Amino acid sequence: MKVDVLLGLQWGDEGKGKVVDVLTPKYDVVARFQGGPNAGHTLEFEGQKYVLRSIPSGIFQGDKVNIIGNGVVLDPALFKAEAEALEASGHPLKERLHISKKAHLILPTHRILDAAYEAAKGDAKVGTTGKGIGPTYTDKVSRNGVRVGDILHNFEQKYAAAKARHEQILKDLDYEYDLTELEKAWMEGIEYLKQFHLVDSEHEINKLLNEGKSVLCEGAQGTMLDVDFGSYPFVTSSNTICAGACTGLGLGPNRIGEVYGIFKAYCTRVGAGPFPTELFDETGDKIGALGHEFGAVTGRKRRCGWIDLVALKYSVMINGVTKLIMMKSDVLDTFDTIKACVAYKLNGEEIDYFPYDITEGVEPILAELPGWKTDMTKMQSEDEFPEEFNAYLNFLEEQLGVQIKIVSVGPDRAQTIERYTEE
Ligand code: GDP
Ligand code: IMO
Ligand code: MG
């Protein structure tokens, strides 16, 4: 069997959690492969709303196996809070959730370092989620990390060594902090973590595939936040792209099946960094208000703009996307016209590719299409789509060269429409 991968094509928050939940019935296993509690994946069903940060979005559906892979960074304190809230709401997970021993731990001092590095950057700060993501991946790559498996063996020593190193850096930075509360919650999280299946997930996932089980890999963040291909340095610290599923789970590239690329009908970004199609006018405010564009975890206002097809084409290429999924179509229901960026002007010259650096001098060239001016939120099938909406879909498919297989018309699980079902 192969694995299917679902990942964001923009700057995150495309609606990955919702669609993973919608697709979960078709799979036996759902696995996260990168990122950590910087993610906030929202799911809505039966009048309830849940936000997941480290736990895969397949957790609500029966006895599916959910895996937190080696590529993920895990904060035991935040994990405990998330898991306990789920259990309290009637969703048991101890038997269903398997955690890679090779996943790296976010230490309390990683969170402090995240804040200290941001403060040191001043105006050039990234606008991170403050969850210690960058410092944890830095320690992983520099071979100083503490892993989940370490909590079973010689843990105190490993923790103390890492903490001492971080404290020295914080002293050099002259950064004031208080670790007491963070460390207490974190140590409780470590004890809590011991109750879970801590596994060699690369063996487990390959065994499951060999037994004929189907696996969906759930990306976090988005391609434009990828540490290699995103809008560097305004990115996260992991590979958010399809290849991240191979390294973050221990899968050979020949194991990759469908690649679902998910995008909003417009575009948003939270945190600092370039965003060529950003709107600073009332249209941007309207998209933000109708789309409730506030961070699922941090509550930060998301910046809004039109869809960027230059960036999307790049994301389709980097990920080898085989199926597209368009989210939040309903947010554009009341607009007279819809715009889409088809090329950039870079230092006065028109280009149709994503350049090395989009931090300066990039202006969007926008195509204009008629709006559909129809409430789509209760639609059940593509037969109900207004003509102008179909024209928008056709335009995007032509530009991107991949079919849009799923259209989302509202946050609820039920507000999801599949297309090309006859194939
Ligand atoms: P993720 O990080 O990719 O899982 O996305 P987030 O959960 O951070 O943000 C997506 C937001 O849009 C959440 O509040 C969802 O409930 C909401 N949402 C998802 N799909 C739709 C949709 O089709 N229409 C509307 N109006 N909201 C949606
Ligand atoms: P989901 O999975 C949107 C952004 C931050 C910041 C940059 C680096 O919900 O789509 P980090 O804390 O990772 O070092 O921050 O990345 N960012 C996200 N933006 N959605 C996310 O996750 C994000 N995770 C990180 O805002 O600009
Ligand atoms: Mg999110």
Q: In angstroms, what is the radius of gyration?
A: 21 Å
Walk across the major sheet and give the strand order: 9-7-5-2-10-1-11-15-19-20
What is the terminal separation in angstroms? 21 Å
User: Structural class of the helix and strand makeup?
Assistant: alpha/beta
Shape: globular
Q: Give the amount of beta strand, in percent.
A: 15-25%
Poorly predicted residue ranges = none
Topology:
Layout: E1 3-8, H1 16-23, E2 29-32, E3 41-45, E4 48-52, E5 65-68, E6 73-74, H2 76-88, E7 97-100, E8 104-105, H3 108-121, H4 133-141, H5 155-172, H6 180-193, E9 197-199, H7 201-210, E10 215-218, H8 243-249, E11 256-264, E12 267-269, H9 282-290, E13 303-305, E14 307-308, H10 309-319, E15 323-327, E16 337-346, E17 349-351, E18 362-370, H11 387-400, E19 404-408, E20 416-418
Parallel strand pairs: 1-10, 1-11, 2-5, 2-10, 5-7, 6-8, 7-9, 11-15, 14-16, 15-19
Antiparallel strand pairs: 3-4, 12-13, 16-17, 16-18, 19-20
Helix pairs in contact: 2-6, 3-4, 3-5
Bound molecules: guanosine-5'-diphosphate (GDP), 6-O-phosphoryl inosine monophosphate (IMO) and magnesium ion (MG).
The site of magnesium ion (MG) has 6 residues, from loops.
